[in-house]
Amino acid sequence: MRAIVVEEFGGPEVLKVVELPAPQPGAGEVRIRVRAATVNPTDVLLRSGEIARLVPKLPPPPYIPGMDAAGVIDAVGPGGDGRLKVGDEVIAVVTPFGPHKGAYAEQVVAPAASVVHVPKGSGLPAASTLLMNALTVRLGLDALGLQPGRTVAITGAAGAVGGFAIKLAKADGLRVIADASPADHALVERLGADVILERGDELARRIREVAPQGVDAVIDAAMLHEQILPAIADGGGIVTVRGWSGPTERGIVAHPVFVGSALTDTAKLERLRQQAEVGELTLRVARVLPAAEAAEAHRLLEAGGVRGRLVLDFSA
To answer: Which Gene3D superfamilies match (predicted)?
Structure first.
């Protein structure tokens, strides 16, 4: 099978297309013939080597990047419960640091618990963008434990994580204050934000102008960290996505979210699938590129300004 590997850390050019033996599913696992794999910022961190800051005990290379895959099950290991079968169209969230590595490959083996069916009405490229980013937000909202009617601010609201944060927060009954550039205002409005403020260095001050007591929490997809703390009420919370845990101030609690802690939480994955199916979550594909152009996809992502997710096509 073809796979995209990282044999040494570096720029996009280190991504190589290689031939590897087809993986075989063991007990409680399934094998997926991948049609689409999403390119996430985590993949860039892995390729560049910056991931070592977040995962101190990295296994040795080579690595296959990618945490989001969509495709068709072509083999089922022993011990399954019958929920998944050969021929099912599915999505999976996987880890590049597990025994079967990541999603940038023609075939991926994953625990059955990390696999759910494709949301009805979604094509495989769009479906591949769902699990990792939406699960990250779900973990953050669960950590905050906000009751309906409370207010959450979302930074980086036009991005993939930020967009899911708006949709999931609204589904939880929360009031959402979001940031946006003028070019992204209409997008963030469509996603459902209640209040939209101009992004930039003065965001915390602008939030205080519309929420004088401070917001109950921030989902910090833009990684503003200490810059956004003044917007949060005393004793509030901040969800962070790359391990930042403070220091904070005024009793504010930081909640660093690590999606790897919930890759086999099938109930959460099923709920996200259902929400995408009924339109509570919006799946956004920025562009689909052939798998052989993984390096170009990484260049585009690092250049910034991508709205939605880039997707690698492994169907050829």
So the answer is: Medium-chain alcohol dehydrogenases, catalytic domain, NAD(P)-binding Rossmann-like Domain
